[in-house]
Amino acid sequence: MRGETAHHLRHVLRLREGARVVLGDGANMDYAAVLYKVDGQTLTFNIVEGTACLTELPMPVVVFQSLPKGDKFETVIQKCVELGAAKIIPVYTEHSLVKNAEKKHVRYQKIANAAAEQCMRGILPEVCLPMRFTDAVQAREAVQLVALAPSETLYALADEPVQTLPSLLALRDEKITAIPKSIGIWIGPEGGFSATEVAALLRVGAHPVSLGARVLRTETVAAALLAQISLLWG
Fold this sequence. Notes:
Elements: H1 4-12, E1 20-24, E2 29-39, E3 42-52, E4 61-66, H2 72-82, E5 87-92, H3 105-118, E6 126-127, E7 131-132, H4 133-138, E8 145-148, H5 154-157, H6 165-171, E9 183-187, H7 195-203, H8 218-233
Helix pairs in contact: 2-3, 2-8
């Protein structure tokens, strides 16, 4: 092993020969290993045993996060990865104030990789290049749209009471224990989705989901909904 991970193990965690570690292959397998040799910046391990990783959700969850101001998106990435998201797609929406987020793509992926290592994920979740809202909606075939997570102003846009995720499943006569093939969640920016964007999501089968009576910041919504998903299916 070489590179940043080897440097971290050698100089930050200060592993010595004989140290026991768990290595992941990014494909849902964990390997118990022993550090056999340290040669400069190269670490050599002996694999003792391989087992299936048990930290992944039973279905992939894709987070479509409208780009928020400042460094909030970095917090979104970190917490979404910790809570089990398989992919995070930054989205330019009508009320997004951020431009040229593509320039930070490499940094965003590094944040995701570090979070995955910290919480022992079985995969390295992907942070995609930013997409325009219309393109993101057209790409929805990659996921089954189960929940539209509202941002701060969606409640005011809704014409009828918004259901919680458990009550939504009950209304659709689905067992909460039934595992969907995949889940896509959409979160608006600080100003919320526009009425046009909400209508577009509803047309393709998204469902508004309430996260409670309290107004949440855009960087909190995905983590709150992922926690509910983990409780129901994790």
